[in-house]
Write a structure and sequence with these properties.
mainly alpha
Length: about 220
């Protein structure tokens, strides 16, 4: 009889299809193939700002929760880097020039909701975003740097200067997932919320594609 798989492994396996679907969404696929524009990249950075403003605001509220607090690490904080990126990409008045897309509004509402009421749900969104940033996000950052001739300005979001070994960080994070005192029902709820987070990301890429099409129509 085989040993039961760990929660972090189950989470990764159960969400792998949703992850692939999100990455394969047309907007992101075009950007990764070098078929997107600098403006496309800026549009993505703008939506990230709204998402991380909500996520890192939720993290501040969740710092007092004994389960969620284990996952909150200031080394992950992305908002200052995103703001520096937007100032570089758009200009000092970037705040007056940006607005969330419909999916981003719903995504932010969901993060705010679980970030105020449900530690497991908060961890699900935290996991989906930050472990993705430390994984495929590293490749995306390097690719955008090459495609658009950036040095580090414009891609600061993807640079985790305080995390020397992303793999070791991710391994430790997964150990904390395995150690979380959740029963089987709560683990299922957390996995379901990770799938919700991935769906928001897929829907966001579709929103970005529609916004791009409308802009050139």
């Amino acid at each position: 009889m085989s040993d039961p798989i760990s929660f972090s492994t189950a989470l990764r396996e159960r969400s792998s299809g949703a992850h692939s679907g999100s990455e394969g969404a047309g907007f992101m696929s075009d950007l990764m193939k070098g078929e997107g524009t600098r403006e496309d990249y800026i549009a993505l950075v703008v939506q990230h700002w709204f998402i991380y403003e909500a996520l890192e605001g939720a993290a501040e509220r969740m710092r007092q929760d004994p389960i969620a607090a284990v996952f909150i690490d200031d080394k992950l904080t992305r908002l200052p880097a995103l703001e520096a990126d937007l100032e570089f990409l758009i200009g000092p008045d970037w705040r007056e020039q940006i607005e969330p897309l419909p999916t981003t509004r719903r995504y932010v509402e969901r993060i705010n909701q679980v970030g105020a009421t449900w530690p497991g749900g908060f961890v699900a969104h935290h996991y989906t975003r930050y472990l993705g940033d430390l994984s495929g996000g590293q490749f995306i950052g390097k690719l955008m740097q090459r495609l658009f001739g950036f040095d580090t300005n414009g891609i600061g979001f993807y640079i985790f200067g305080d995390i020397a070994d992303p793999k070791a960080f991710k391994d430790y994070y997964r150990e904390q997932l395995d150690a979380a005192p959740w029963d089987e029902a709560e683990k299922e709820r957390v996995i379901d919320e990770v799938l919700v987070a991935y769906q928001f990301n897929t829907d966001l890429f579709e929103d970005l594609s529609r916004a791009k099409a409308a802009a050139v129509a």
